[in-house]
Amino acid sequence: MAISAPALLRRSTTGTEAIVDAAYVLGALMLAGEAAVHIHQYARFVHGVRWLGPLFLANAAASVAAIAGLAYRRTRQFAAFAGVVTSVAALGSLVVSYGRGLFGYQEAGFRTPVELAVITEVGAVILLSAALAATAAVHEGRGN
Predict the structure, then answer these.
(1) Rounded to two decimals, what is the model's pTM?
(2) What total of structural domains would you count in the chain?
(3) Does any domain span residue 2?
(4) How deeply is 42 buried, as exposed, middle or buried, from its count of CB atoms within 10 A (0-12, 13-18, 19+)?
(5) Could you tell me the residue range of the domain that residue 39 belongs to?
(6) Helix, strand, coil shares of the chain as percentages rounded to 5?
C-alpha cells in the first residue's frame, strides 16, 4: 500500500515540533541524571537519615515516573509538569538544608554529588519548562 505525498507531509513534524521533542528528550535525560544522583546518595550517604533517605528514593521514583510519562505524547505535558515540580522541590529542599536544615540534616560544603544534582535539576526545570511553553505555542498557532 503506497502512501501519498500529502499524507507523508501531514505525518512529518515541523522544525519547531522537532525542537520541542528534543527539549522533552533532553529534559528526560536530566531527570534520569537527577534520579541517579539521588539513588547514589541514598545508597552511599543518606540511607540512615530518618525522613531524608526515603525522600531521596521518592525523588528518584518520581523522576522515573515522569520519564515514563514523557515517552508518550498523551501524557507528555503532565509528565513534564511533574518533572518540573519534582526538580523544583529538590532544589528548594537543598536550599533549606544549607540554611536551618531539613528534617534534622544540614548540608555543609558543595560536594560533587550536590553539584551534579543542581546541574540536572536546573537543567530539567529549564528544558521541561521550555518544552511546555513551546508546546502551548505550537498548539495555539494551530488553533487547538
Answers:
(1) 0.82
(2) 1
(3) no
(4) buried
(5) 15-142
(6) 80, 0, 20
Residue type, 26: L
| Contact assessment for residue 63 and residue 37, using Cβ atoms and an 8 Å cutoff | no
For residue 80, tell me if it sits in a domain.
yes
Question: Once rounded to an integer, what is the mean pLDDT over residues 68-80?
Answer: 94
**Is there a domain that residue 10 lies in?**
no
- Residue 44: Cβ-neighbour burial (10 angstroms; 0-12, 13-18, 19+): exposed
**What are the residues facing 102 on neighbouring strands?**
105
77-131 pLDDT, tens digit per residue, is 999 999 999 999 999 888 887 777 676 666 777 788 889 999 999 999 999 999 9
CB 31 within 8 A of CB 38: no
Would 5 be classed as within a structural domain? no
**Cβ atoms of residues 89 and 38 within 8 Å:** no
